[in-house]
């Protein structure tokens, strides 16, 4: 069975600094990896996905993610954080049943 | 572009009551699913459907029923509500259920409280 781990419940970053939200995964076969963002009282919004190809994937709102097969990681990154990036972020791996989610990481960007 | 529409947004039930959470999508998506979100636990899959007339269980199906009579609609039924079913429920759909690169599109959720 597949699983996803997000080791940090919360990440605090000053506005303008680079940010990283960590994710590691466990899956048999090729991983199909996703990042979603959730703003308060809203559903999840798709940010980006890794299927195959380049290890650096670019997504919405200036976010990118780096796939590392040897470390089974798929960390979310952004070069310069905005206060509006503050939200709950989920990493997920897709299987035939559906998505398996990590527990989420609260990202707080301080002005 | 309505996307995935869930109703109601909020609901309070007493233990033992039944209700149906509605979900509709207008994107002609094959795959639809229901998740529940609980603090510190991420989202967990309740039931899913890969097409009209086809449904299957996810990770936490007990206490819930689903049906898929049309491509557009995927209602979730609570037969006898329990306090453990207090949660936020999300419906999600994707173009294909078998192509794992299809991202899910989520509704805005139904916040259910069972007293």
Describe the structure.
The complex is a heterodimer of chains A (111) and B (115). With 111 residues, chain A is mainly beta. Chain A is 0% helix and 52% strand. In chain A, the strands form 3 sheets. In chain A, strands 2, 5, 6, 10, 11 and 12 form a 6-stranded mixed sheet that branches. In chain A, strand 5 (33-38) and strand 6 (44-50) form a beta hairpin. The radius of gyration of chain A is 13 Å and the shape is globular. In chain B, a hairpin with a 5-residue loop joins strand 4 and strand 5 (43-51). Chain B has 115 residues and is mostly beta strands. The radius of gyration of chain B is 13 Å and the shape is globular. Chain A binds chain B through residues 9, 32, 34, 36, 41-46, 49, 51, 90, 94-104, and chain B through 4, 33, 35, 40-45, 48, 56, 58-59, 90, 92, 97-98, 100-101, 103-109.
Question: Would you summarize the structure shown here?
Answer:
The complex is a heterodimer of chains A (111) and B (115). By secondary structure, chain A is an all-beta fold.
Instruction: Outline the biggest β-sheet of chain B.
Output: 7 strands, mixed
H/E topology pattern of chain B: EEEEEEEEEEE
Q: State the end-to-end CA separation of chain A.
A: 41 Å
Structural class of chain A: mainly beta
Main sheet record of chain A: 6 strands, mixed
Number of extended strands of chain B: 11
Helix content of chain B: under 10%
DSSP summary: helix tally of chain A = 0
Structural shape of chain A: globular
What is the gyration radius of chain B calculated from CA atoms?
13 Å
Any idea what the shape of chain B is? Answer: globular
Query: Which regions of chain B have little confidence, pLDDT < 50, spanning 5+ residues?
Result: none
Instruction: Please give the share of residues in helix of chain A.
Output: under 10%
- Number of strand segments of chain A: 12
Considering residues with a beta carbon less than 8 A from a beta carbon on another chain, report the largest interface and each chain's count. A-B, 24 and 26 residues
**What average pLDDT do the residues of chain A reach?**
94
């Amino acid at each position: 069975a597949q699983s996803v781990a997000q080791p940090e419940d919360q990440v605090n970053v000053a506005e303008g600094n680079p940010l990283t939200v960590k994710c590691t995964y466990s899956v048999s076969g090729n991983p199909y990896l996703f990042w979603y963002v959730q703003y308060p009282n809203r559903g999840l919004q798709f940010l980006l996905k890794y299927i195959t190809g380049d290890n650096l994937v670019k997504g919405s709102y200036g976010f990118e993610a780096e796939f590392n097969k040897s470390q089974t990681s798929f960390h979310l990154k952004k070069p310069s954080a905005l206060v509006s990036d503050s939200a709950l972020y989920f990493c997920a791996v897709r299987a035939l049943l559906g998505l398996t989610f990590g527990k989420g990481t609260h990202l707080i960007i301080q002005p | 572009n309505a996307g995935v529409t869930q109703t109601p947004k909020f609901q309070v039930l007493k233990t033992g009551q039944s209700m149906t959470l509605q979900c509709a999508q207008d994107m002609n998506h094959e795959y639809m699913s229901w998740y529940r979100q609980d603090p510190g636990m991420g989202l967990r899959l309740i039931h899913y459907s890969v097409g009209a007339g086809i449904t299957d269980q996810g990770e936490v199906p007990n206490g819930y029923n689903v049906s898929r009579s049309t491509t557009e609609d995927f209602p979730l039924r609570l037969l006898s509500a329990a306090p453990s079913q207090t949660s936020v429920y999300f419906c999600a759909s994707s173009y294909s259920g078998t192509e794992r690169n299809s991202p899910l599109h989520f509704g805005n959720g139904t916040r259910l409280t069972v007293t």
